[in-house]
Amino acid sequence: MVSVNRMAIVVKPGQPFLDWLHQVDPPSKELSLEDLWEEPSVYLVPECEGEKEIRKCLTEICGQIFEEQLDSWITEPSTWPKRRDLEAFDHWFEWSFHSLVFDLSNEPLLYEEL
Q1: What angle do CA 51, 70, 33 make, to 5 degrees?
Q2: Contact 17/27 with Cβ under 8 angstroms?
Q3: Could you tell me if 6 and 91 are in contact, meaning their C-beta atoms sit under 8 angstroms apart?
């Protein structure tokens, strides 16, 4: 087991995300928050020290995470909310940072550009 020099942020859609999804994709009306939470997204981010640094890091990356979350459901950016800053991110998603990240695999890490 090795420790990784990253932190993890776990992101789950909140009610505003679900409301938006129901509005732009009528077949999704069958989905609930519990359905969306079954497999939350996990992002590896640079290590941060303390709440202030975490918020600074999140300010820098929240737009990218926001767009990835939207794009994973609806690929047409014209349907996305215009405002995707940290305040909107906090409103649209539930998230948590985790400072201890361990790699339990013996397999090499593979990177795929998305």
Answers
A1: 80
A2: no
A3: no
Angle, vertex CA 13, rays to CA 27 and CA 88, nearest 5: 115
> What string of DSSP letters covers the chain?
-EE-SEEEEEEEE-HHHHHHHHHH-GGGGG--HHHHHSS-EEEEEE---HHHHHHHHHHHHHHHHHHHHHHTT---GGGS-S--SHHHHHHHEEEEEES--EE--SSPP-----
**What are the tokens at 49?**
């020290």
> For the chain, what's the residue count?
114
* Interval 80-97: pLDDT, tens: 999 999 999 999 999 999
Of 114, 104, 71, 100, nearest to 6 by C-alpha is 100
Residue 70 has a CB neighbour count (10 Å cut-off) of: 22
Q: What is the pTM of this model?
A: 0.88
Angle at 15 between CA 22 and CA 51, to 5 degrees: 140
